[in-house]
Each structure stands twice: as C-alpha cells, then as structure tokens.
Amino acid sequence: MTGVPVTDDEGEGEEMVLQEEDLPSHQTLEEEEEANKEDDVVSATTLEGSIAIASEKKEEGNAHFANQRFLQAKESYQQGVAALTAVGIIHSDDMNDTTTVEQLDKNNMTKALCVSLQSNLAQVCLKLQHYKQAEQHCSAVIEDWDESVAKVWYRRALAREKLGNLDAAVDDLTKSIRLLQAQKQDEQMKKTALQAFERVRKQMSTISSQKNKDNTSNDNDTPTSSPLLNGLVNGHHHHEPPPPQETTATAPAVAIVPPEPFTIRPSPEEQKQAVTKLLKSRTVALQQNLQVGEALFLIDWDWWSQWCRHVDLFSSSDSNTNFETTSKRMLALLPAGAILPVTNNETKAKKDTTKQQEKASDDDDDDDDTSMESSDSEEDGDQDGPPDPIDNSRLLMPTLRKQPSNSTTTIKFYQQWYRHFQPPPALEDDLGGDTPPQTALRPNLVRGYHYEILPREVYCALKSWYRELTPPICRRTTKKKSQSILTIDLYPTPATTTITASKHKCAACRARTATKRCTRCLMVWYCDRSCQEAHWIFHKVLCSKIAKNNNNNGTNINNHIPPTAEGRVGLNNMGNTCFMNSALQSLSHATPLTRHFLSNQFQKDLNPQNPLGTGGKLANAYGTVVKELWWASASTGGGVATSPTALKRAIALFAPRFAGCLQHDSQEFLAYLLDGLHEDLNRIRKAPYVEMPDFDNIRNNAHTRVAASQAWECHQRRNDSLVMDTFYGQFKSTCVCPSCNRVSVSFDAFNHVSLEIPTPLNQSTTWLSLWVFPDRGSSNNKNNSNNNVSPKGAAAVRYAFAFRRNNLVADLRQALSEVTGIPPTHLVICEVSDHTIVEILHDNKSLGTIRQDEIVTAYQVDPYTSTSIHIIVSHSLVEAATDQDGSPTSIPLRDNFGFPFLTSCSALMTCRQLWEHTWLRVRHMVMPLTEEGDEEDLDMELEDAYRQLLKIRVTDADGNLDPIFPLNAPDRDAKSDDDEEEEARTAYMPQDLDEKISSFLGEDCTSRFLFLSLEWTETMDTPPECLKQAGSAQGGNTNNKKKKKSKKNNKPKAVPKTISVNEKRFVTYTDHPCYAECVKKKREMDGIRGVSLDQCFETFTKPERLDENNMWYCSNCKEHVRALKTMELWRLPNVLVVHLKRFEFRHGFRRDKLATFVDFPLEGLDMSKHCAQWKTDGDPPGQLYVNDHIPAVYDLFAVVNHFGRMGFGHYTAYARKWDEEELSMDWALFDDSSVRPIGDGQGGGVEQVVSPAAYVLFYRRRNFN
Fold first, then answer.
1. What end-to-end distance do the CA atoms of the chain give, in Å?
2. Taking the alpha carbons of 1176, 1190, 492, 302 in that order, is the dihedral positive or negative?
3. Which residues are registered as beta bridge partners of 1020?
4. Which residue, 6, 42, 404, 1082, could crosslink 244 as a Cys pair with Cβ 3.0–4.6 Å?
5. Cα 1022 to chain centroid, rounded
6. Shortest CA distance to 1163 belongs to which of 1236, 1095, 1224, 1091?
7. Distance between CA atoms of 1083 and 1022, rounded to whole angstroms?
8. Where is the USP domain (predicted)?
C-alpha cells in the first residue's frame, strides 16, 4: 500500500514541528503491527463506492488523530488507501484518446484523496516514531506521483532527520521551502520549515566540530552554506537575477541583504543580560549629556515583540519584584517613548481565544489538514521560540529600481507618487560607519505597532545573533533651536531628490516617465506596453497615416501630432445630468485615479465577482469616459463634447436612485461613484471576516495611535484599491455618556468630509449669556480663587458662550465649571422672568430652545440631600409708614426687583441661623461702600442698623404669603396648648428665634425648595443708639481708628442719619473676559462677508450633543443616551474631497440653501491644525520626540459649483491639471458641453473660482510622503 501515488490536498497552516513528548511510550513496533491486522476486508465494486469508503475512513482517521489516538488513525487511513487501491488509478502516461472527461475527473478525485491519505499516514508514523515507514510513504508520493507537494517534502525531511540522514534532510527542507515560496502558501508554514532548517544545520555543525576538534585548523568547522540561505526570501540564489514575477501588494519589492553565515547565538537569558547591560551603559552615558546625532535604528514591532517574549525581557528573576515595576524600569532604559510589548501571558490568552475560534470554524471544513494541527504545547513553544532573521520589509518604501512588467498596481502607485523620497539605488549595511544610509519608509508608521526604536549597540547585538534580511533603518537625533528636546525625523526631507524624470510625456497616462517610442510612427512615447495598448484605439488612425508618409518620404520631419484635449472636453447634458457632469469633470482631474484608467492598469484590479460592485461595468464605463476626455483630438472627431451614456447606466446599477432624468445632488453622486469604483477595483478577491478590536482602554495619545493603525489595517483587510489609496482617510469618533461618563473611541474610513457652515444664517450656533451668583457665605467659596467673585460689591458675574443649537444644558454647566472653578454638581442653572426664578433648567434641555432675550442665571449651591433645603429668594420693596393707632407698618412699592437668587441650607437650622444665613448673602447690596467700592468694615452695632431694612417672609411657589410663625414667637414657650391653637400667625420669620425651621414647616420640611421673599424698606431713620455708637467709635477710640486705617487705607464714611436701599446695587454685575471675547467673535461673524474654510473645520471638530433620533447605546448604562460626540480627522487622504453643507432640511420636507460665502485657499491649505494625529497629550515623553507626521499642505485643483436652489439649480465645475511635478495655473470652467479657460494662465484672474456657489472642493496633497 505504500506505493500508491497520492497528492496531498491538505490546507494551509499546519504546525510542522515534531514533538516527541506527545508519543505514547508503551507502544512498540510489534504492538503496532498486531493492532494493524485488518479485521474487515474492504471491498468496493464501483469507483464511486471506493471513493465514498475512502472519504469516510479519512474523516474517521482525522477524528482519531485530533484525539491523539494515533494507532486507530493509522488503521483508518490504511483502510481508506486499500479501498482506493482496489479500483486502480490511471497514470498520466497511460492516458490516451479513449479516456473520457468523466473518467479523468473521477481519476483526479481518486488520486487527490489517495495522496491525502498517504500524507496523513506519514504524519501518523512520525507521531508513532516509525520514521522509516514515514519516509517510505513520502517517497512513494514524490517518486511516483507529484513532486510539488511541499508538505510531503517537509515530512520526509523530519523522518530523515530522526534517521540521521542530515544531508538528505537539508535537501528535502530546501525543496519544501522553495515550493512554499513559489506557491505563495501560508507564511507560518514557511517559518516552521525555516526553523527546522536552522535546527538541522545546527546539528550538522555540532557533528562536524566534534569530528574535527583534534585538527589544528578549524576552517571546516562550519558546513558549506546551502543555496537555500542565499535565496531565503526570493527563492533563488543571490548571484542570479530574480525571475520576473508579480510582487504582491503586501510584500513590496525591497532590497534584500544577503544573510550572513549561521552562528550559534547565546541562550535567551544570556541575550537578556547582554541587552540589559548595553542599555544601562547607554543610560549612564546619556546622563552626562544628551547626544545630538546619536544613531538609532528602527526594528519591526512584531519581531521585537517576539524576541522580548523569547528572552522574557520585561520580567525579573526576583520573585519579590512585581512585573509592573520591572517593566517600568526596563522601559526607562529604552529610548524615551517606548511601549511595552504584549507579554507572554497576554499572548497565551489571545492564542487560546484564537484557537477556540479556529476550532469552531474547522468543524465545517472538509480540508483534512485542519485535523492535522500540532498539539498545544507545540504551538506555545513556537510563540515563545526564537524569532527569524530581522525582517523590516513591511516598514520600507518600494524602491525606484526597475520593476517587472507585471508588477502590481500598488507598487506602480508608490513608484510614481512617492519617489521624491526614495533611497539611492545602492544600499549598504553601514552599521559600523558614521553615516548609516537613510532608508525611505512607508507612510503612516506608528511606534509601538509597526516599529520600535533601538540604540545602535542593541541593534548590532541582535543582528549578530539573528542576522537581517533587509537593510538597516537608521535615524539620527537632531535638536532645533526652538526646542529643548531631541527629535527624530522619521521622514526626513532629502536635500536633493532622486527623480529621474524623462523628457517625454507618455501619450497615454501623461506621466513623465515615457521611455519607449512607437516603433511604427516614431512620434509618440509610452511608459510601457500597457499604456501603448490602451492608447492604440485612439492612435492607430494617425499612426497609420504617419507611417505611410514615412514610407513615401523616408523621414518624419513633416509629420505632426495634433495636441490632445487633455481633459478639456465637455459632457453633454442628457436631461438634468449637470450634477453628474460637474462631478466627472472634477474627478477626472484627480491625476492618480485618471492615470490608473488611462494606462489600463485598472484592468489588473477588476473584481467582477465582488457582490458589492457592478461586476466591473462601472469601472469600464468610467475608463471609457476618461479616455474620451483626455485623448480626444480633432483627428478623431472629438474635442468638443461627449455623452457619458454608458456610465449613467452603470451607476444606476450600483445606485438606482440616479436612474432617470431627475435632478440629484452632485456630492451624493460623487460619493456613490467613488464607492462603486472602489468595489469594482477592490484587490481583495475573498474578503475575510474581520472583527474590530475594542478601543475602550485607550489611555493616552500613544495608545490612540496604535488603535487607529489597528482599525485601518482591519479596514484594509477587506478594502484595498487605488481609490482607497488616493481618496480615503480616517475619522476618529469619541462618544461620552452623559450618565456614567464612559468614553468610547472608534475609527472609520471616509472618502469625503462634509462640513457645516458656521454662520448665524443656518441657526447652527446659539450665543448664550448668563449671570453667575457665587455663594458668598460659603467657606469653600472664599478659598476658591477661580470663581471670579467681584470685590466691588457686585451681585453677579456675566459670562457668554457659543454652543451648537443641539447642545444640552449639561454642556453649558460643564463649560461654566471649567471657567469658574465651581464643580458642576454645585451649579444650578435657572431661567428668570419678572425678577423671579420661573424654571430650573435640567441637563437634557436643548440650548437651542432658549430664546436670546431670556435671562439665564447660575447659582453655586450644595448638592441636594435628604437633610438639605434649596431656598429660592426674591426681593420686594416697601415704604415705612404707621397705621392709625401709631403702630409701624409698610406700604408695598414694588413686588419684585433685582436679581433673585438660590441658596442651600441644612434643614436642621434654627430660625436665627437661617436669618443669618440669608443676611450674609445679601448684605453686600445694602452695606455702605468705601471710595474704592469695597464694603465698609463696620461694628456689629452699626451693621444692625442696616439689618433693620430687611424682613424675611415665607411664601409658597406662587408667591402667596405662608403664615407659619406665631406673632409672639419669643413668648411661645409660656403659652398653653389651648392658646397655641388659636394663636395668630404671620409669614415673617423671627430674627432671634432658636427653634428649628423644620418645626414650622411641618410636612413641607421634606420639600426640596423653600420660597422666601425678602422685604426691603426703601428708607428709614438710623436708630439713635447706632448713631451714638458710631460717634464714640469715630471720636473716642483712637486705637480703633488707627487699626482700621492700617487695615484699609481709606477713611470710613460717617454713618448717615437715614439709611436706604439702592435698587441699582441689586442688579450690579461685572463682565468676565470671556464675555467680551464672545461678543467680539459674534460681531465679527455677523459683520464679515462670510466664513473661512478653517472655521468650517473648527466647527466640524467641536463636540456635539446627539439628538433623540441619533442616540448612542452605552454598554455600561444598557440604554440609548444622547451622548456628547466629537468627530476628528485622524488620517488625511492624498486627495481630500470637502463638501460644504449648503442644504439643510426644515419642517420635514423643505430643504433650504445657504448662500454664505466660504473663503477657501487655492494653494497652501494647512490641514495639520485640523488633524487630531498631529496633536499630542501634553509635552513629548522624556527627552525624545519622534516626528512621524507627513506634510499636510494641500492645493486646490477642482471645484463643483451650485447655482439656484435644491432640485431646480445648475451645477458647473472649475478644474486645473497637475501631476507629481507641478500644479498648472491654467483653470478652466466646465459647464456641461461648454469648456472655456479662465484667468491669464499665470495665476491671475482666477478670483471667480472662490465664490459663494462653491459646493464641493477637491484638494491634493502637495507631497504624498
């Protein structure tokens, strides 16, 4: 049965490290042969029956193998092979013309199944330590049937290794690795084979050194290097040119450094001690002086994390030291800003989760290789095992070297648009020199996710132990005059660029890299064959004419190539299609995308099987339109206008709303067009399931950058196209729950930014002014220097804020707390009308519902508790008088005046304490003032005179008097119970009663609010005893007078004979500086012609309270809440599409247009101040700052304009040409079929581009890298 030819149909991902400890020690060869005696004779009368039996036995063997029942698995596999052997398999040499297609299909199915069973038999024999049988099974497959099964070569190498045939094992491993590289199979399998290769070579080196230990020369200690090491990455010898092959998008073509000869590295503990010693030595040296110009090296983050786990770098051998302390100590030794890699425990937990998910998915997988995975111990060992040679290829930018003609569109995109920053062609390992080479890196690299920074000494040590496959990446520290810290420029701008632009432009894609000329007419130039084939349909008529002239005249001197339109072709209006025409004209001037279609490179990316696309119809139709716009000339009858009929039908397939002849929104059409092109050109043929990671544990800016990179790569696993490379950026969205303050961060991709225009015309902003009343009698308030209490006796401080209309009162309270220093829980915001508090504003009330003429106040109070009472106080004015019997009385003058106020007190206060509590909060409005406006420091007797101006009354919520106090309060204890029942009562609160206020309130004492009316007497005579006391204080007590002068450098005013209430002091307030700033900003916005684009971006990034129709679900509160949401730009695209939201819905169906002028720059738009990625949390950590930002300066190249109103308007477009070298000054106006230039071609006369009609703006990044 071992001679049956087989082909392994197993899947990828098998862990191919043999673990002998998994084998049962009691099993011997004799026992295994006895167990293998067949009890049943497998019989099959038909081929179909044999296949069914073999498949059943294969699944049975897989189940036994998964449960480590290896003997039973071997028996099942042998029975399956026997069933197939009985019917026979036709060899390829035996096939003739009489062999039918049905026979061939069944034969191939039988062959594949037999190979799978035979390969599994070899794996079982390895587990049972029957290495000779395993070798025989593998040799039968290789020699008789198929030599292209990498897994069979690998299993035979393992068997030969155990049998001692190391030379043959090396050859088998070399063949296996090359097959894996050629077939582009799983990288994990290749890594396992490489580890086995190193292990075998190490054994050979040990044996060789033992044999030659007595020799005087050690030249032959190391065996001859295998060809495999010289072509470890590319799959060929290093002295041979690489074969032409297509470079994948995820593995760009980078210069590969030939590996060094294999050396035996120290143990993990020795490596850890050596690196720690090097880091400590560097730290001691840096303490003396910060080294400007120190060479630091970048290393791949995955490699660095695996090495840290392998040597357990961040743990301590001391059991008394916890992990957190040790890790912080080690991070302090690394260059500042280092991030802790994933620890071994976290890795194992993550592996267990992944393993359970894979096991669940494997239940429905018929591929037998899923049942042949190695044991848990094998997998854990691989995760913590030594890493492969250092490979920084995913950090490097593709080089400028000539690529094969079938290179992918991703590499071509990088070659054309990122070549300003390419490294020189010659790359050397200059680790030992003073000036290591500057290697160009991919954009948007993040420390702690893509790379880590290591000192030169540590990198050299790691390189000597593990070798490197890519050139070193060195960056030197610099220090600018304006900075006190060291900086590393991750993307340094070279002094000179390495561009080698051709003097000819490609006739197809218009790139400046044309090096090939048409061999027929010798008049036009192309980049490559693809450009020529794409352009031939437009060039063949002219080419034939020129070639004919050349044959007749023998020269092409008199021949002339007429200029092409180069985008200056109109589009016919096919019935309300101006919205489509304007968007197409603008998009066709996006050079990267247009060049992709003009060169026919897009055909390599077509994905007709994508269910989210149009099967390639939209991409093909768009390509046709672009070619007509850019290649049309007078000789072909074009150059005037064309009709995009096919494109309109194709977009209707993707978005049916655009079918027919109705008017639509140009921005909506553009968004659907970009999405449709992306899906048609998506390079991901089979989109995997991707689960977004949880970003709730983001603690600082470094974690945010890592989370954003994780989200972007998760998005790229399902979306990869040139449209995404050009137009897509990334939003950062932050939601804060108003109840539990939970913060949720998410990242989303976008292809355009919709900006709200911040102008009062659309009522998007509400300007709110309010008066804040600090608690003057609170001890906490006296110690708080941030509450802006006026020292001049003012009743309040006025503030002003600008909010979006959908913000809530909770947002106002938070903003007020930040300005005043009063905690939000101690602020109560109220609405005042007619000098009375009429409503307490709750947190969920929208600020947009507050009218501009309403008076809003805020009071500092203690939070409400079961033993506290909030007191709402109003003021009234009376005139002193006497009744008929001479008793004093009062005549009401004014029911309410001045600012009301709100305070809080304990329900356990007595009437005397409550009266004093209230007086302390109003005395500043009646006490005399010094010349400087401060309150006079009077004696108690003098202050009592002013107390007599005040009487406190208790009222109900409607303002009606509430008589709850007895008329003769001080004699209350002397009265009997019967007299108390008939006792007359009054609403005036006794000033000197020591009975608790709760005893008078009764059931009302449990109410949250107590309403008081302060009755002020307008004018009264000063009591004689006060005048007498004042005179003695001013004339008789000299020491007192001197004491007061030392305290106040102002002479106190004399006590007047009459005292009165000044109503103006009850409405006195001071303005906080923020009020003047807010008023100034409002006036500027009302007075200017319009707003700037920067103001639009500032409005976009402001926090916004979600409305009831867009509530967010909080996982902590388990309910939908109106969260505070903040949208920010995180990753900026290369082509930025900005949509100005000029239309807004009103009353459900009405949609109004905003004609506000938005001033946007034609060149030099700096987006760094609007990008959250450029913002850091405070100062850079430590003494090192990594500048990894890509220049964010943008230039305008197209504008879509809208005139009229929605549904009945008209669209036009302005556009100009640009490429990687320059930005043209020639603007053109596209109005359907009409195209005309504007300006003088030198940048003048283009003021009309910036107009109130601008609707969609197209900006290109000045430098892509």
1. 62
2. positive
3. 1059
4. 404
5. 72
6. 1224
7. 49
8. 569-1262
Partner residues linked to 279 by β-bridges: none
Q: Partners of 890 in the beta sheet?
A: 880
Lookup: tokens for 249: 């998008």
Per-residue pLDDT tens for 121-164?
888 888 888 888 888 888 887 877 677 777 888 888 888 888 87
Report d(CA 718, CA 1013) in Å as an integer: 69
| DSSP 8-state assignment for residue 705 | H
CA-angle at 1048, arms to 1043 and 1049, nearest 5°? 105
What is the reported pLDDT for 145? 67
The CA distance from 331 to 367, in Å, is 45
Q: Is the pTM of this model over 0.70?
A: no
Residue type at position 545: K
Query: Which uninterrupted H or E stretch holds 108?
Result: helix 101-127
Say if residue 447 is exposed, middle or buried (CB neighbours under 10 Å; 0-12, 13-18, 19+).
buried
In sequence order, the β-bridge partners of residue 1114 are 1119
Is residue 554 left, alpha or beta, with left meaning phi > 0 and alpha meaning psi from -120 to 50? left
Count of alpha carbons within 13 Å of 184, Cβ hemisphere only? 7
Please report, to the nearest 10 degrees, the dihedral formed by the alpha carbons of residues 98, 103, 105, 108 taken in order: -100
- As to burial, measured by CB atoms within 10 angstroms (0-12 exposed, 13-18 middle, 19+ buried), residue 381 is middle
CB 873 within 8 A of CB 918: yes
d(CA 217, CA 1050): 104
Question: Residue 419: exposed, middle, or buried by beta-carbon count in 10 A (0-12, 13-18, 19+)?
Answer: buried
pLDDT at residue 321 greater than cutoff 80: no
- In the block, residue with structure tokens 């401080």: 797
Distance CA 231, CA 133 (A): 32
Q: Give the CA radius of gyration of the chain.
A: 42
Could you give the 3-state DSSP secondary structure of residue 681?
A: coil
Residue 938 confidence class, pLDDT cut points 50, 70, 90: low
- Report residue 153 as tokens: 């070569």
Q: Point out which residues pair with 828 in neighbouring strands.
A: 859
